[in-house]
Amino acid sequence: MIHPSMPALEILGFVAAVLTTLCWLPQALRTLRTKDTKSLSLVTQSSLTLGVGLWLIYGILLGNLPLILANAVTFVLVVLILAMKLRYG
Amino acid sequence: MIHPSMPALEILGFVAAVLTTLCWLPQALRTLRTKDTKSLSLVTQSSLTLGVGLWLIYGILLGNLPLILANAVTFVLVVLILAMKLRYG
Fold it and tell me: Which domains does chain A have, with CATH numbers?
């Protein structure tokens, strides 16, 4: 959480992490609603999901809580988008 | 680069970074070829681009070369996808 004692650099990293994590929510909601995955690249979606999964394992092995939290949330969202891509083609 | 002296944890982080960076290449190529961006969420693509841009600035301010390289490459690819989304709708 942003707190008055946080230095500017930490806030910048926090905002970057929130953006690259929660940005997947509108895509997941849009795809849930439209069931349209035609323009999504399956290779992109698969390798993104695998990559985020590896970041999550990396965070767990390092015991780095921000890395774990950000990648756990991202992983749930990108897995959902990948599952819809596999389902709707 | 992967090198025999790299510990397993560093290799894991390296593979994760390569995947979450280069995964954007097939999406960019697919969209260049098909000009089809209908299923892509504009909010996702915009906030991803902004987030990656902030990660890049964060890496530059920290002087962290892997963070700079990964996010510079990612930024070029996601800006290209965002530009096509804005162009083709």
Answer: 8-88 (1.20.1280.290)
B20 close to A (CB below 8 A): yes
Helix (H), strand (E) counts: chain B: 4, 0
Tell me the pLDDT tens digit for each residue of B48-89: 999 999 999 999 999 999 999 999 999 999 999 999 999 998
User: In angstroms, rounded to a whole number, what is the distance separating the alpha carbons of residues A28 and A71?
Assistant: 16
Cα separation of B22 and B71, whole Å? 10
CA dihedral B49, B51, B56, B57 (to 10 degrees): 120
In the block, residue with structure tokens 């756990």: A72
List chain B residues with CB under 8 Å of A7.
Answer: none
Residue B37: list chain A partners with CB under 8 A: 39
CB B43 within 8 A of CB A11: no
Q: Which residue among B18, B38, B51 places its CB closest to the CB of A19?
A: B51
Strand stretches in chain A, DSSP E: none
Residue of A nearest to B23 (CA): A44
The CA distance from B69 to B44, in Å, is 22
Please name the member of B15, B26, B52 whose beta carbon is closest to the beta carbon of A41. B26
What ipTM does the predicted assembly reach?
Answer: 0.91
On whether any CB of chain B is under 8 Å from the CB of A5, the answer is no
